[in-house]
Amino acid sequence: MVKKMVIAVISPAWGKDGMRVSGDVSPYLMLAALLFSMGLYVALTRKNAVVLLLAVEVMLLSSLIVFTALYHFGASNLGFLEHDFPGMPGVGAQIFALVILAVAAAEIAVGLAIVIALYRLKPDSNVDGFRTMKH
Amino acid sequence: MESIIVFFSLAFVTLLGLVMLMAFSRVLHMIFSATLTFIGLAAIFFVLGAPFLGVVQIIVYVGAVTILAVFSIMLTRHDTVDPTEKSLNLKKIAALIPPIGFFAVMYLAIARTPLFMSGSPQPPLSGKALGEVLFSPMYVLSFELMGVLLLGALIAAVFLAKE
Fold it and tell me: Does B77 contact A125 at a Cβ distance shorter than 8 Å?
């Protein structure tokens, strides 16, 4: 009973006939959407620059769950990334995820350098204190 | 049944990190709770057949990004407390609207799209296989661009942070 209710929430389209969770992508997609939403909430409410950057990182990383879940459950069935490597269907999803990871790492490195440079201009890590580009 | 238990425990750990991030008020505590989220994400990558991605996630995020964030807190202000008010005010309630709206739209979209895969799940992709694909002519350009981007970010970070 409880299991059926849980399945009905995390994959509503197939909850009716029960137990097909083993091949089901949608719980992972729901988790990614939830992570993105919570990261967005943190990014909107917090004021410290470092915490803002971390929240944006969480939002970026939630997209990696989508890529890896679509790889794991057979992205080739979806016609997702059609130019597959021979013998390894859906491997393009992992390449994309790796590229996103590198871009996110580059972003947070530059972002934290900017935080330190701004602190030197004005000793404050609260983003509301920086309203103009010039000080 | 096992996949449900694994999914829920990993989702619990990952979301617990974010809930702790929302609950804490000291910035250092927030950074370490974000680390918990990163560890949970790495475990999800392992479960989803991307062990190389999981290892890179642990090295880059749990290792480097956390230390970098802690360093930038230590270099700026020692015991920073986030100035966000604890009480529920209009601003916080208004900030709830975009995330809840986004999640509602995504929930409906995911729930109405038939995404069930009939085939068996793919086997984990080893680092060797991923490397061979990454250096094949199909993806080698994206690899090179990734390298150039990381070099540019390195130079930019050093330039911005130096005196």
Answer: yes
Domains of chain A, first to last: 2-129 (1.10.287.3510)
Q: What single DSSP character describes residue A4? A: H
**Is this complex's ipTM strictly greater than 0.85?**
yes
B56-87 pLDDT, tens digit per residue, is: 999 999 999 999 999 888 887 655 666 666 66
SS3 percent helix, strand, coil of chain B, rounded to 5, is 75, 0, 25
Nearest Cβ partner for A72 among B34, B48, B84? B48
Q: Is A36 on the interface with B (CB under 8 A)?
A: yes
Taking the model in full, what pTM does it have?
0.86
Q: Which domains does chain B have, with CATH numbers?
A: 1-82 (1.20.120.1200)
Contact state of A72 with B44 under an 8 Å Cβ cutoff: no
Contacts of B17 (CB under 8 A, 6+ apart): B33, B34, B35, B36, B37, B38, B39, B40
A59 touches chain B (CB under 8 A): no
